[in-house]
Design goal:
The structure holds 2 protein chains of 2 kinds. By secondary structure, chain A is of the alpha/beta class. Chain A has 7 helices and 10 strands. Chain A has a single domain, classed as P-loop containing nucleotide triphosphate hydrolases (Rossmann fold, 3-Layer(aba) Sandwich), CATH 3.40.50. In chain A, helix 3 packs across helix 4, helix 3 packs parallel to helix 5 and helix 5 packs parallel to helix 6. The two termini of chain B are 23 Å apart. By secondary structure, chain B is mostly helical. Chain B has 2 domains: 100 residues, no CATH class; 69 residues, no CATH class. Classes of the chains: A alpha/beta, B mainly alpha. Chain A: Belongs to the ABC transporter superfamily.
């Protein structure tokens, strides 16, 4: 299974606007510990993978992209919007899926949780109901509409977390190790969902085989981008680095 | 409450959450105001009819709520047998049983968001002193959501400790659980930000 370009289902729908994310000399530190140092990048590709060892700065980089973390120095711009000063608008454009879905699901039942983000945006109730129904069907959760979230399987929880983000119709979605806690079957299931998205995606992952069809892969090492290129260029290089 | 909701289209399901909660409060007040066995029995029959016949809830859903208090009710009846009389004991037990069943019917036929909306509505007058009802409602919903999550994590820690030879370490559970809960809370805070919790409108839109 590979995460690739936008799926066939996207062909019929009007294309979403593309997002451009620009990092200008970004540094981030937690106290004394610098986790990202002088990173400058422009991200315009539809499918971008991020790999690297634990503690290399991948997750902090991912969090910078929708303003969950603001840089200690430097600037992050999403379509020209500064994540430091225009964070609400940035978060409407860039969704974020966490590694642990249990930390992302905030309502006790499935449909209520999917509706959460739309409710926050003040979307009218009829529109919320319509969009929630669509997303639940799309991700095979319509049979679990009123199901307690804590009784879902790991894969279903991750799909629910993804549905809760996608219902808000972001233009780009950042996934922070979305398959790390999943078994092979659920990993493939989530990968198929990511593969079918019409949104631009950034995926932080340790599952290198899933990145083969991506447009670009960034390799992080000690808070810097150590390699940047196509999967064919970067993944073997990274594997060789790991010994 | 955590997983009791049973979807349906019955009259009880469609009734407004506020009305159901008001009826529950009125029933509780009425049962304690009138200590007559025929009134209590009639109320019990009414609640059972509402739950089983009108809302068409499975008997097991109601029994699941009674089971945890069954011993307490039995003990209460025995207490009355010894200190007062059987009739007083029967009234006391049936009164509590009726309330437990009524609460079960309300929670089994009402979505959490609808109950939370009632909480928010009740808190609305406090907006003048700075209370944000939507925030309080979110806290209530999240409390219900995270009770089973924290319980699951506690069970995992217990298993991990048992696997390494520990047994009966109730205090030893607290520190790792607290650390995990704090980590969960940190990620949850990020998730709330990412999902626009900061944008919570003053009033949530009503369901269609």
């Amino acid at each position: 299974m590979r995460w690739g370009r936008r799926g066939a289902t996207a062909a019929a729908a009007p294309p979403l606007p593309r997002t451009a994310v620009e990092l200008r000399d970004v540094t981030h530190a937690y106290g004394e510990r610098t986790v990202l140092a002088g990173v400058s990048l422009t991200l315009t590709e539809a499918r971008i993978g991020v790999i690297g060892a634990n503690g290399s700065g991948k997750s902090t980089f991912a969090r910078l992209l929708n303003g969950l973390v603001v840089p200690t120095a430097g600037t992050v711009l999403v379509d020209g919007l500064d994540t430091r000063t225009q964070v609400r608008e940035v978060r409407r454009r860039v969704g974020f899926v966490f590694q642990d879905p249990d930390a992302q699901i905030v309502h006790p039942t499935v449909a209520e949780d999917v509706a959460f983000g739309l409710t926050n945006q003040g979307v009218p109730a009829d529109e919320i109901a319509r969009r929630v129904d669509e997303v639940l069907v799309q991700y095979g959760l319509d049979g679990h509409r009123d199901h307690p979230a804590h009784l879902l399987s790991g894969g279903q929880k991750q799909l629910l977390a993804i549905a809760g983000v996608l219902v808000m119709e972001p233009q780009r979605v950042v996934f922070d190790e979305p398959t790390t806690l999943l078994d092979l079957g659920n990993t493939r299931r989530v990968a198929r969902v990511v593969d079918g998205l019409e949104q631009d995606v950034v995926v932080v992952t340790h599952h290198l085989d899933l990145l083969a069809a991506f447009d670009r892969v960034l390799v992080f090492e000690d808070g810097r981008v150590a390699a940047d290129g196509t999967p064919a260029e970067t993944v073997p290089w990274y594997v060789a680095r790991c010994g | 409450m955590l997983s009791l909701y049973r979807p349906g289209t019955s009259l009880v399901h469609r009734a407004r959450a506020g009305l159901k909660l008001a009826a529950l409060a009125a029933l509780g007040t009425g049962l304690f105001a009138v200590a007559r066995i025929e009134v209590v029995v009639a109320a019990l029959i009414g609640v059972l009819a509402a739950g089983l016949l009108v809302a068409r809830l499975p008997a097991g859903v109601l029994w699941a709520q009674v089971r945890p208090v069954w011993l307490l009710l039995t003990g209460l009846f025995v207490f009355h047998l010894l200190l007062t009389d059987p009739l007083t004991g029967a009234v006391a037990v049936l009164r509590l049983l009726t309330l437990v069943l009524a609460a079960a019917v309300v929670t089994a036929t009402t979505r959490v968001t609808a109950l939370v909306a009632v909480v928010e509505w009740l808190l609305r007058p406090l907006e003048v002193v700075g209370v944000r009802p939507a925030r309080v409602g979110l806290m209530v919903a999240m409390t219900l959501r995270f009770i089973p999550v924290v319980a699951e994590r506690a069970a995992r820690i217990r298993e991990a400790q048992a696997a390494r030879g520990a047994s009966g370490m109730r205090l030893g559970l607290l520190v790792p659980l607290l650390i995990q809960v704090l980590q969960l809370a940190a990620t949850l805070g990020e998730a709330l930000d990412a999902r626009g919790a900061d944008d919570v409108p003053a009033r949530r839109p009503r369901r269609a």
